[in-house]
Amino acid sequence: MSRGTQHVLLLLVGLSVAMMLARGTYVNYVKPSLWPWLLVAAVVLVVLGVTGVVHELRHAVTPEHGHAHRSWLTWLLLIPIAMIAFVAPPPLDAAGANPPPAISAPQPRPFPPLPEGPAPEVSLPDAVMRAAADSAKSLDGRTITLTGFTVHANGRVDLGRVVIVCCAADAQLARVHLAGLDGRDFPEDTWLRVVGRIEPGSSHPDDGFVPTMSVTEVQRIDRPKNTYAY
User: Fold this and answer.
1) Residue 196 near residue 159, CB atoms below 8 Å
2) Could you tell me which residues belong to the region Disordered (predicted)?
C-alpha cells in the first residue's frame, strides 16, 4: 500500500467517525459517554489524513505501470470503511447479544433506595441486580416500571434489554420473566413499558438469576432511538 493510499485511508476513517457522530449512529457500537473521545479521534485522523494527502500531492511522482496497477487493488480496502459511514447496521437485538456467562451467586450488598413515587422507572439491568443481590430488599413491596423488548423462551414471555459495558462487542442480554403475559399478544421483539412487582425469591441460580415480575399494566411503545442499557 502506497503512502498516499494510507493517508486517504486515515482521512476516510476520520470522516466516517465524524459522520457517525453527527448522525448519532455511533451509539450502535459504543456507550454515549465515549462521544468526546470519538470526536477527538475523528479530528486527529482527519488532520493527519489531509496533511498527508496534501504532502503527497505536492511531491507526486508518476508511478510505474506495475505499481499503479497494484495500488488500485489497495483502494478496495476503502470500500468497507466508506460503507460504515453511509450504511449503519442496526443495534444488536436478543439474537445478536452474547449468551450470559455462567453465573455464580452474587455477593449480597445493600443497594440505594428506589426513587419515590407509585411506580418509578427502573432500568432492567438494575432490577435484575437488585433482585439477585440487594440485601436491603429494596424491590420488596414496590411497584416499578421496566422498559424493554419481548423475548420468547420456553413458552413464556420475557422482557429483555441488551446491556453493554463499553461497546457492542461485550453486549449481553438481561431478562425478566413476565408472569401472566400471552406470547400470542406480544410477538417477539415488541417494545413494552411494563408496570408490576418483582416476586420475592424469584431470582435464583437454577434460572440464571432471572427474576419474575407480576405484571399489572402493559403498554406498547415505539423502539427507542438508543436501545441499549448500561
Assistant:
1) no
2) 98-119
Q: Are 60 and 162 found together in one domain?
A: no
Q: What letter does residue 23 receive in the DSSP assignment?
A: H
181 and 134 share one domain: yes
Cα(208)–Cα(206) distance, integer angstroms: 6
CA distances from 189 to 148, 159, 161 (A): 9, 9, 10
Q: Phi and psi at residue 108, in whole multiples of 5°?
A: -60, 140
- 127 and 19 in one domain? no
Cell 465515549 belongs to which residue?
34
Q: Rounded to whole angstroms, how far apart are CA atoms 117 and 103?
A: 32
Domain region containing 198: 92-230
Q: What is the pLDDT of residues 99-119, one digit of tens each?
A: 555 456 788 999 999 999 999
Q: Could you give phi then psi for residue 122, rounded to 5 degrees? A: -125, 135
pLDDT in tens, 25-51: 777 777 777 778 888 888 888 888 788
Calpha distance 136→32 (Å, rounded): 31
What b/e readout covers 35-65, taking b as 16+ CB neighbours within 10 angstroms? eeebeebbeebbebbeebbeebeeeeeeeee
97 & 207 share domain:
yes
